[in-house]
């Protein structure tokens, strides 16, 4: 075995003098740095599968909303969750080995340390977005699996959430927790059936335009639309060119819309139309419309979160389950303060805060029977406990209204991808809720008014100087920085601001909100100056 690993590793050398780190997005960087990384991630995934008694581990090859020259490799755990945190460090250690021999030694010492029996069977599955570099990276992964005798399946082109779905399906196949058929066709069938059930005969009004960022969501959504019965939903798919890599995420997609706070220039948005944008790997969703009078209006992850919480909270009450099931909402510091107030005061649901990154939110959401979590950037989902799902199907309804509420709850628990935020599944959920409530996007927007806010990216000498506490809402280092931020925040009405080191790039981010646009902008500028000052050596 040793010789096989050494020989295979020699074919996939690591680019030296580069510090690799497994972050919130796995390993993400210029694609030409990634071949050796993908190989090593293959070795680690094999170890992880063997450690977990041969359950399948997933590897997704994508750089999400980044340009086409970038790529990334990310590991998916057996139930479709993000890789367990302790293992991120093991991944970082393995990928940073300087030579083939050091890699082999580290691999073997990790196996010993983690008590992995290298003779047990293991399985790794892989999927990738539409980036041209994905093919070669999957081959590197395959070579790693071959060298350590791990069963390997390449699912080729998938959205990130589809890969999470597939991993969970494989590991639950034939058990009472079975999650669906192990194929993209199985995913589409589950979505389509659940959509029809969740609508319960209601109509989705008008046409929905979906901007797919010229990423993998385009072809995958088109496949799904083919199996949804006629007249259930009218979708116009735009920005779905996956043949020209250079247009991937270019002036399109959820990240563009959220950060620029405007609609993609192409195709020219039709005023009044309902529009949404996915990101390059289809795990983020943002809705918007162009108002003929007031212009662009965006409904981001916070809005999607409160819409879901309001709808599901109502259904749980109608189903007579409010004493049995705990519903909660999970947000990050980026959530608009107005959304938090709406959820706590108007919907009367608890809100919990976690640091940025899906793994944190997901984990906190799982502490509730029904946990709604979304980041403001549009990434999120709803998770249901086994007990909740049991009650939806087994509780004896006391009235026709209760019966309908229980059936709708059961349907939406199938419609929402419970493994991870899924833009396509979230989009269908939004459409279902609007159909139930008989709402337009404007009705949805009228639920509360966002506080004006500003997000700034700040270049610093060393972002690692900045450490946070209290779910990233306060800086614990460098000393004195938080006090300076506090002194500025005090000067503005209804204001809040925080700064944190980015987990995906070498910079800090500053967020500020306040009662007026000009106050939010001013506060953001002051706090950015504080960060610049403390971040330069
Ligand atoms: C990653 C995270 C995303 C988070 C973003 C923050 C996952 C799957 N993705 O893309 O949730 O919002 O990082 O980026 O966890 P930042 O640390 O650069 O601000
Ligand atoms: Mg993404």
Automatic annotation (TrEMBL):
**Residue ranges of domain Alpha-D-phosphohexomutase alpha/beta/alpha in the record:** 56-95, 109-173
Q: Which GO terms describe its molecular function?
A: magnesium ion binding; phosphoacetylglucosamine mutase activity
Q: Which family does it belong to?
A: Belongs to the phosphohexose mutase family.
* Family matches, as InterPro entries: A-D-PHexomutase_a/b/a-I, A-D-PHexomutase_a/b/a-I/II/III, A-D-PHexomutase_C, A-D-PHexomutase_C_sf, A-D-PHexomutase_CS, AMG1_II, AMG1_III, PAGM
GO BP, one example? cell wall organization
Residues that, per the record, bind substrate: 375-377, 500-504, 509
Q: Tell me the ranges covered by the Phosphoacetylglucosamine mutase AMG1 domain, including all copies.
A: 206-285, 300-439
Domain Alpha-D-phosphohexomutase C-terminal per the UniProt entry, residue ranges: 455-529
The record's catalysed reaction(s) read: N-acetyl-alpha-D-glucosamine 1-phosphate = N-acetyl-D-glucosamine 6-phosphate
- What's the name of the protein? Phosphoacetylglucosamine mutase
Q: Name one Pfam family in it.
A: AMG1_II
Functional description taken from the UniProt entry: Catalyzes the conversion of GlcNAc-6-P into GlcNAc-1-P during the synthesis of uridine diphosphate/UDP-GlcNAc, which is a biosynthetic precursor of chitin and also supplies the amino sugars for N-linked oligosaccharides of glycoproteins.
| Keywords assigned | Carbohydrate metabolism, Cell wall biogenesis/degradation, Isomerase, Magnesium, Metal-binding, Phosphoprotein
Q: In which pathway does it act?
A: Nucleotide-sugar biosynthesis; UDP-N-acetyl-alpha-D-glucosamine biosynthesis; N-acetyl-alpha-D-glucosamine 1-phosphate from alpha-D-glucosamine 6-phosphate (route I): step 2/2
Required co-factor(s) are: Mg(2+)
The EC category is isomerase
In this chain, Mg(2+) is annotated as bound at 64, 279, 281, 283
Identify the Gene3D superfamilies for this entry. Alpha-D-Glucose-1,6-Bisphosphate, subunit A, domain 3, Alpha-D-phosphohexomutase, C-terminal domain
Name the active site residues. 64 (phosphoserine intermediate)
Q: How is the cofactor bound?
A: Binds 1 Mg(2+) ion per subunit.
EC numbers, comma separated? 5.4.2.3
Question: Species name for this entry?
Answer: Emericellopsis atlantica
Q: Which domain of life is it from?
A: Eukaryota
Q: Which residues cross the membrane?
A: none
